[in-house]
């Protein structure tokens, strides 16, 4: 749960409420962390995976219509290059933390 909240940059209470709502719908299951009783894991259920798979085609279609259909192939290539640099910079702190042992 901590890592999920960190990646989403959500407050603990917001994440807990969302996970409870998703668990009530059968999309995820919350599992205790045996190593740290304060922690918990969130597992995607088969129903949760089905929901993602069902939503994906419409999501991709919408993103394509709203964003990519407005750009030329050259502009898409430029965006790809720009965002690759952003992704590399986002990954760099996590990689550095793993290398020096400060990642938990």
UniProtKB/TrEMBL annotation:
Gene3D superfamilies named among the record's database cross-references: Winged helix-like DNA-binding domain superfamily/Winged helix DNA-binding domain
- In what residue span(s) does the HTH marR-type domain sit? 1-88
Alphabetical list of SUPFAM superfamilies matching this protein: Winged helix' DNA-binding domain
Cross-referenced PROSITE patterns, in alphabetical order? HTH_MARR_2
Q: Which InterPro entries match?
A: HTH_MarR-typ, MarR/SlyA-like, WH-like_DNA-bd_sf, WH_DNA-bd_sf
Give me the segments passing through the membrane.
none
PANTHER family listed in its UniProt record: MARR FAMILY REGULATORY PROTEIN, TRANSCRIPTIONAL REGULATOR, MARR FAMILY
* Protein name per the record: HTH marR-type domain-containing protein
């Amino acid at each position: 749960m901590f890592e999920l909240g960190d990646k989403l940059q959500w407050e603990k209470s917001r994440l807990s409420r969302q996970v409870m709502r998703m668990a009530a719908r059968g999309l995820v299951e919350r599992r205790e962390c045996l190593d740290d009783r304060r922690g918990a894991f969130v597992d995607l259920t088969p129903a949760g995976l089905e929901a993602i798979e069902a939503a994906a085609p419409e999501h991709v279609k919408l993103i394509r219509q709203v964003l990519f259909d407005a750009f030329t192939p050259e502009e898409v290539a430029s965006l790809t290059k720009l965002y690759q640099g952003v992704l590399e910079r986002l990954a760099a702190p996590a990689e550095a933390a793993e290398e020096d042992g400060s990642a938990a």
